[in-house]
What we know:
Mean pLDDT: 91
Largest sheet: 3 strands, mixed
CATH class of the largest domain: Mainly Alpha
Strand content: under 5%
CATH topology of the largest domain: Citrate Synthase, domain 1
Helix content: 40-55%
Oligomer: single chain
CATH architecture of the largest domain: Orthogonal Bundle
Radius of gyration: 23 Å
Bound molecules: carboxymethyl coenzyme *A
Distance between the termini: 59 Å
Shape: globular
Number of domains: 2
Strand order of the largest sheet: 1-3-2
Amino acid sequence: MTTETKQTDGAGAATANDTLTVTDNRTGKQYEIPIEDETIRATELRKIKVHEIDQLAEESTYLEVAYLLVHGNLPSQKELDEWVHEITIHTFVHENVKEFMQGFRYDAHPMGILLASVGALSTFYPEAAAIKDEDIRYLQIIRLIAKMPTLAAFSYRHNRGMPYVYPDNDLSYPGNFLSMIYKVAELKYEPDPRLERALDILFILHADHEQNCSTSAVRSVGSSQVDPYSAVAAGVAALYGPLHGGANEQVLKMLRRIETKENIPDFIKGVKQGDEKLMGFGHRVYKNYDPRAKIIRKHAYEVFEVTGTNPLLDIAIDLEKIALEDDYFIDRKLYPNVDFYSGIIYEALGMPVEMFPVLFAIGRTSGWIAQWLEMIDDKEQKIARPRQIYTGERGREYVPVGERS
Ligand code: CMC
């Protein structure tokens, strides 16, 4: 049995006995959490976790993972076939969706279009408001997973001034997405299986990640019992923010600025002096090598076999090596996170940076839905209304404005 402790200092600091001990019965591990201001910090509970994404990324497909998230277990072959079939036959969107998307400015950000169009789906499926009806609810889940790539691809094509490409239901989930993005004049788009697989893995790696900003937005909005399209639109909105869906773009900018391997030592020196951060390094939860980064790094090579090498990958690999051997990063437990390599792969796949959060949103949809579902089924769930700990002054009298100093 191991024990993790946290010391705090300053006002409201925990003394030796001001702690709460929590035991994770799955692992037997104990966690000692400081009590401050008569409460504990929710973020302290983040330490309690078990993660095994590697196997899913290596062995399964995104749709299997989506099934796992929604149903709580991996599907049998028959269940998987039905699930994939259902999703495949719901990939089309109503023609009016296409028409209103055309009303966006010619250069509209694809994430803004996605955000609006997911929310708008609630008006196309008003029955979705019946969130307690299991059959109706299930259909909306299928629709959301099925239509998200279509909306995402249409938003990309709009931004590029290209005609929208309808879904090709002969193709796999990622293959169809690539077709809707890249098909031009050919009768049938045939995705390279290596690119298809790389994209599928990226979707798997982004499928769910606990109570991140967008997921808690989905839960918070969904707790009002609104339909799932509106709740998921809140998630897309949260993901639109640069602090959430945008770190991989910052990594690309950083690598471009470094430009050559020879400039890495100077760059690292600047980071150590506090001039800037090494983007794509460090994580609020992982204080070790983010397992997702390891998987993406491996698949980056496969993508480059198809697309040709990208000098940014070589800089990234050298930068990682140098940082991992440097005491500054070792002492602070700073390792590559999922964003260190994902932007490089997206770029190699031909995606512009505006599409990075859109791709993230496609993968995260199954996680948002699973979390939403868990919340809807939770009998104790009430409308979100976080409690606030008031630490300001109390019992003050109202002073008329003219008498205030
Ligand atoms: N480069 C240089 N120094 C860093 C970095 C970094 N990327 N990250 C943390 N530090 C330093 C920080 O300055 C601090 O140093 P000191 O103790 O001397 O003051 C120490 O490490 C601890 O930092 P922290 O701010 O307590 O770490 P955190 O866990 O609160 O922050 C983070 C996590 C992800 C916000 C941060 O590491 C960061 O800004 N990284 C760069 C941005 C990035 O890659 N974001 C993507 C996150 S993964 C996306 C996802 O999974 O959803």
